[in-house]
Amino acid sequence: MTVAIEAGVRFFQYRNKSGPRRAVYETSLRLASLANKSGALFFVNDHADIAAAVDADGVHLGQDDLPIEHARKLLGKKKLIGISTHSREQAVVAETAGADYVGFGPIFATTTKNAGQEQGCAGITLIRQAVSIPVIAIGGITHEKVVDVISAGADGVAVIAAILSASDIGQAARTMIARIEHTEAEHQRGDR
C-alpha cells in the first residue's frame, strides 16, 4: 500500500473474502491508519461493522451483503458506501437506496473474481446515463483499456492485477493515474 500511496493512489479497498473476521479487522485497522496518515481513502469490502470499528472512510458492499440502509445505520451519514452492480437496474436501486457510488462490471474478463458476463464499455455508458452518482468501473481493466473505460463515462477504475502483477508497482500505478488524468483532461477540453 505504501508504494501505491507514494505513486499517487488515493482510494484503497481491503478485500479478503476468506480470512477470519478477526484477521480482517486487524489488517483493516493497520491499513486504515496508514491511509489516514497519507490522506488516502480506505474502504473495507463487505463488512460494514468492521469498517465502522476501524473508522474506515467507508464500505464497499456486494449484492449479497448487508443492505445499504442498514450499512448506513452502522456507519452514519459521513461515511461513504459503495456497492458492486452488474446491471442498470441494480445501479438505479443502489442510488435510490443511498449509495454514494456504484462499482460496475465486470467491464472485461477478470481473474480476481467470478462476477458474471462482461459488460464492456457500452455498459459503462448505459450506467452513466442512468445514475447521477459516481460510477467506478471494475474488472479486467488494464493500462491499455483504461482510456476507453474513462472515455465511456467511468469516474474511476478499480484495479488489482494491472498494478499488483507489475514488476514495478509504483510505476504501474503512476502510468495508470497518468492515463486517467490525461483522458479526463482531454474530455474537459472537448466539453468547452
Overall description:
- The chain has 9 helices and 7 strands.
- It is an alpha/beta fold and 192 residues long.
- A 7-stranded parallel β-sheet has the order 1-2-3-4-5-6-7.
- Helix 2 links the parallel strand 1 and strand 2.
- It is globular.
- The termini are far apart.
- The mean pLDDT is 94.
Number of domains: 2
The parts where pLDDT drops under 50 for at least 5 residues are none
Q: Termini, distance in Å? A: 37 Å
CATH homologous superfamily identity of the largest domain: Aldolase class I
CATH class of the largest domain: Alpha Beta
Q: What value does the Rg take, in angstroms?
A: 16 Å
Strand order of the largest sheet: 1-2-3-4-5-6-7
Query: Approximately how much beta-strand content do the residues carry?
Result: 15-25%
Give the class from helix and strand content and strand pairing.
alpha/beta
Give the H and E element order: HEHEHEHEHEHEHEHH
Mean of residue pLDDT values:
94
What is the overall silhouette? globular
Total strand segments: 7
Considering DSSP H and I runs of 4 or more, what fraction of the residues is helical? Answer: 40-55%
Secondary-structure arrangement, i.e. CATH architecture of the largest domain: Alpha-Beta Barrel
